[in-house]
Design goal:
Length: about 300
């Protein structure tokens, strides 16, 4: 069992659906990692402090004010307190731009990192910029593109330590809506995956993105009259949606050094999709980059610049 009397600070990644916390000791030691489903989407502004304390109150040393550094949707307009965006091109925003949040509990001192915005074309990110900061803390000379898969995937052009531009795609949300709430849901219940169908669908979508609506309905028709099984239908839906994303994002990834920030099945799907286009992407653990970015902010806040 961890000795939380040595807790120095707490790192938070507060997303729309989940809250993740790292309890940090001296020397970047992770004393514990915790998670709850108290995401921004389920909380009113006056409920954030209670949700946080429910998760980490037993980790707060007596007689000490413990700094809490937060990234993600807690800083959105619907979150705990709005943390202003920084406009690209820019370095990933750090401790110098954090928003301090007033708390009723005197044991914690909460800071929220800002997001990043792009005016033309209009775009925003919250949380991903901290992953990018963590990546650049480890690879400061990186010049290329970071792909950050998720509900709203991001493609970010990185050069000279800055986020030069980025583009978001609602691919993950579209997959969830189509597979769970549209007419396609009837043919997608069950488990399994068809890798060949996924790869073929990527090619189909990239070669004829204008035919997407027809290709989607063909999944429904296939389940009705051609014995299209659920595993194939799900894999093909994923491939079609990722394929049109790759087609639109081609100016970002074509001929670039590409790193995919993620370690789950979705990130692996992007890795395979990019590899099929002749790219040589590499995979980087997103959780590690989030913690590295939060740790960089802590280092600055704590006055340790060595």
């Amino acid at each position: 069992m961890s000795d939380f009397s040595t807790t120095e600070w707490i790192a938070l990644d507060w997303g729309t659906s989940h809250l993740r916390a790292w309890i940090m000791g001296a020397g970047a030691q992770v004393l514990d990692r915790r998670e709850s489903d108290a995401g921004m989407g389920s909380l009113a502004p006056d409920q954030f402090e209670g949700a946080l304390l429910e998760l980490i109150s037993d980790c707060l040393p007596a007689g000490q004010v413990t700094p809490v550094i937060t990234c993600g949707m807690a800083g959105s307009r619907q979150g705990w307190a709005e943390a202003a965006y920084r406009a690209v091109p820019c370095t990933p925003p750090g401790a110098e731009l954090m928003t301090r949040v007033k708390t009723a509990d005197s044991r914690i001192q909460v800071h929220i990192l800002p997001g990043v915005k792009q005016l033309q074309p209009a775009d925003v990110m919250r949380g991903e910029e901290t992953q990018i900061a963590g990546f650049l803390a480890r690879e400061p000379k990186f010049d290329g593109v970071l792909c950050l898969p998720g509900t709203h995937s991001k493609w970010a052009r990185i050069s000279a330590g800055e986020i030069v531009s980025f583009q978001s795609y609602m691919t993950g949300e579209m997959f969830a809506l189509l597979s769970r709430q549209s007419v396609l849901r009837h043919g997608m219940a069950g488990e399994g995956w068809n890798e060949a169908a996924f790869t073929a669908a990527i090619g189909d979508a990239m070669s004829r993105p204008q035919a997407l609506a027809a290709q989607l309905f063909a999944l429904r028709a296939g389940s009705l009259i051609a014995d299209l099984d659920a595993a194939t239908a799900r894999a093909r839906l994923s491939g079609l949606l990722i394929g049109i994303e790759l087609a639109a994002a081609r100016p970002y990834w074509l001929g670039q050094d590409i790193a995919v920030l993620g370690a789950d099945d979705l990130a692996e799907a992007y890795m395979r999709a990019l590899t099929a286009q002749g790219c040589l992407p590499r995979s980087v653990a997103a959780d590690e980059m989030t913690l590295a970015g939060l740790s960089a902010a802590w280092t600055t806040l704590n006055g340790d610049t060595t």
